[in-house]
Amino acid sequence: MGPLLFHFSVGDSLGGEADAPVYLLMARWFSGDHSAPVELMMEQALFPPFYPFLLALVGAADSIAYAHRVTVIALLFSSVLFALWLRQQAVRPSVQAGMALLWLLLPSTWMISFELMSEPLYLLLSLVTLLLFKPFASRALGYRFVIIIPLALLLLTRTLGISLILAMLMVLLKLRYWKGIGLLSLSLLPVGAWYGYKALLGFHGNYQMGFLINATDVQQLILHHWGKVNTNLLAMVSSLSDLFALNAHWAQQGCALLICTAACVGWLKRLYAWKVDALYLFIYMGIVLIWPFPDHIERFIWPLLPLLFYYALSLVPIQRQALCVLSLLLLLMPSYFYIGQRWLEGGQLLASEVEFTQTKRWYSRSDLASAQRDLRVRRSLAQLMTQVAQWVPEDECIYFIRPPDLMLLSRRLSFEPPTRHQGALEGGRCPWFLVTVLSHPSAPGPLYPLPYLEPRHIRAFYTHQHKEAEERAERPSPIYSLLVEYRP
Prior knowledge:
Blueprint lengths: L1 H8 L9 H12 L5 H9 L5 H8 L6 H25 L4 H13 L1 H6 L6 H19 L10 H8 L6 H14 L2 H8 L2 H14 L5 H5 L6 H27 L5 H23 L3 H15 L6 H5 L3 H9 L7 H11 L1 H15 L3 H4 L5 H5 L3 H20 L9 E3 L3 H8 L2 E3 L6 H5 L5 E5 L21 E5 L5 H5 L8 E6 L2
Parallel strand pairs: 1-2, 1-3
Antiparallel strand pairs: 3-5, 4-5
């Protein structure tokens, strides 16, 4: 399974998530690169530091393929740790192996392997912490301070790690284990030190400030985030089938609903027993429901899938658990027939296009023509961004709808484009615009803001022309992206 996952996932694609370039730019900073784009990204970055620091440590700051290896290794180790955690819960060995394999074979796990994000590392660290907590709480762990290490790293990987710390403290409080509470509290020191260090450097980007934005008192804070609950809840429900299958048919959707219903019942039983994993899930989901990023709900829930599977399995009689796991594995087969078909279709593309199939976008679009057009738009944009440096001087900047992507590939400063108000466009700080047909919240339409620029102030257009016409004996492909020099 490991070699297959490496072959399927490891490549030079940034994936489809916007986090990847941010993490790689942060990794460059940890590698000693203090160029203007890297410094700007560190100043604005909201993410905790451990994942990009790990990328820098293994030499992945300038190698996307190496970064993907980190993701795949984290996934493989997580499957082993999941099996060990199941053994701690007295699950039979055959079911342990089957459940770990089932989780690893989930299409959502394979799609996560395309992305450069911190969730796989977060899951690994959370499973290590849960494994250590049982002997820690029963005072059977020889070196009790050991649990502080994965717990501190968990918080330094994702802010949501606070949910596991709170759950553990709640259990220890019930046990009146005061020394243990003191020890676990030490795990908060590294993340506090990091944000203090960022403040000293003048870097003020963090989730905590964004989370409290526009809230001047507790009542306003509650009202501000309560409106997000309904949106996030609907996004959560709609994403459930995607977590268990890809382009799910009605049987897979029904099975996903059944698993989630059973998991809720199993979770309530564990919550009533005051189990640390159930408390963790309760706090984690509570935070996710008010987290202001409904488009990312699926990836937020993904690290909880091992727990949800266990809760559902706990309702099945022991003698039927192996058969239940086997049935679920068979139910995944339609998704893998589809993945295999789309993988073969990707193999028929040009050599320069194949790396852009290593993204969920390629596999999640049921219409092949739509998937191919999306792929070519993104390839055109990526290739143009790598060539920007030959036209844009190092001391000038570029407006673009996704600045981190451009700063990573071009090593030039980039900012989101100003509003279409003429004064804002005329008086901007950057004399360059990278425009694309891709949609984005900061762009009112395709090729924004090209339609709003004064033609007499446009000095030059630059674009990347493909060699598709020579390779396929067809007409040149459409122009999807342009670099515009604009000097009013």
